[in-house]
Amino acid sequence: MPGYFFEPITFTSKPDIMKKAIIILTWIFSCSAFSQNINSHDTVAVYNAETAIVGERAIKIPVNFDEDNLLKQVPDSLKDLSIIRIDLVYTVYKSNPEFDQVALNNRRIANFRKSWPGADNALINWRTVGQSQAVEESAARQMFHGFVIYYRPKPTEESMRAEIEFLDEVLGMSDDKEVSNNEVVEANDVSIERVEPEGTSLSIGIDPIEMETEKFTWKTEHGKAAYTEGKCYETRYFFFDGKKETLESKVDSVSGEDGFAWYGYGSSRSKGFGVRRYHVYVMYELDSCGVDKSSTLKTGGYSVITYMPDWMAGGDYGVVEAVFKRNPGWTNSLVVMDVTGSMSPYIAKTMSWVKSTQDSSQVEAFVFFNDGDSKRDSQKRAGSVGGIYSTRNTGFKPVYSTMKSTMQKGGGGDCPENNVEATLKGIKDYPDCDEVIMVVDNWATPRDLKFVRDLDRPVHIIVCGGSVGINVDYIQLALDTGGSIHTIEEDLNTRDIQPGKSFKLGKYYYTLLDGKVVKAEIK
Hints:
Layout: H1 15-36, E1 38-44, E2 57-62, E3 82-91, H2 101-115, E4 125-131, H3 137-142, E5 146-152, H4 157-171, E6 184-187, E7 190-195, E8 202-205, E9 221-227, E10 232-242, H5 244-255, E11 260-269, E12 276-285, E13 298-299, E14 302-303, H6 319-326, E15 333-338, H7 344-356, E16 363-369, E17 388-392, H8 396-409, H9 419-429, E18 435-441, E19 459-464, H10 472-481, E20 484-486, E21 491-493, E22 503-505, E23 508-513, E24 516-520
Parallel strand pairs: 1-4, 3-4, 15-16, 15-18, 18-19, 19-20
Antiparallel strand pairs: 2-5, 3-5, 6-7, 7-11, 8-9, 9-10, 10-12, 11-12, 13-14, 16-17, 20-21, 22-23, 23-24
């Protein structure tokens, strides 16, 4: 497909010229949209679908080796869902050195687009992945070829429970309870016990823990833990299903190891009579410290422990923390955050940041919204959807409890959310806040944009999932309020946008046409 080039655009004031320009640019953008979406090209030995990310699923649409016809159609059930990424997987091996792999991939993509026009969505991250392990044709034919679609399913009670369980795991929480040293808590059949020396005050910073399966069985990994008495420890963490005798046996097996200092564990009900799921972390004293003190955490006398899975080291899940660090002038802030289904990785990172910054927080209050408390989609009316809950940031526990309760009461449903309604309610509840920050899901366009005119102050929009491209409706929302828009890497003040001139945000260029933000292509 040919590329298109144009300089920063200026227009006369004549309406007919403006209309013609819009028509021409709309055609250009629609023709070039798909070519812009091929974001990366990778090579792996053998392709494995990524299934560990909470709130995402994958479906495969195969093709045969050296052929372009789809062997399976894209299900209609994906039509109204958020598609995060599509990988086109092929083998690098060529039986004929002159074979044109690029041409074959283009034919496969053309057939895929014909089968499913939704593939043209500009927010989908497209990637081609070549598999290099096969060195002969018979082996290459056995490998998977085709498309892998990563999508967000509609949330269910079961999926929301899984996301909340994930949050409890990574944030070291259990029924909104944190425990201090040598304390045992029993609540809702969940117990946490720490067995550690007296007179110690623990401050812990944990390195990312690698996830073994999508059911959150963690491999034994390590972090660093620093005591105020100057000693440093290595943390090893694992969990299993079993009876109390199994726990005692496992602890006995490690207590005789060199450097063993103490252990702690948590447990919750599991399947089988007397069987529980035990979460065990063991501390081993180190010969030297070498701890990055900037990463150690402590809040109100409680140990701050987070277990972030390995896959969360990538992506933009820490976008909220990153943006606040770049904007230290944001104080006395109101944060309005989407906590609908599939937002849990972003929520986990945000809550970890909230947990670690209580002594110096820039946030005065939080508003969480779930798009209607599980209302049927047909019952949702823009401006009065509901499912909005708020709390002042007086401590991590009330913030986390309010957020968790909001998630439990809803989960989303259809793609649109009630961002503006939630923001208006937050401003009404906390009128003295100096800054308004909206944390949004890039794949979900607000259903209530017509009420943006009622927002009487600038809104700073932090985009979750903006690494591929930004939903233009969020740029427009920021523009219409005189606010700003932020990704994990950059900030854009919309007051710097000039009509008719292109501006860059992330990987792409945008421009204003008759006051509306549209995507532009600059080459």
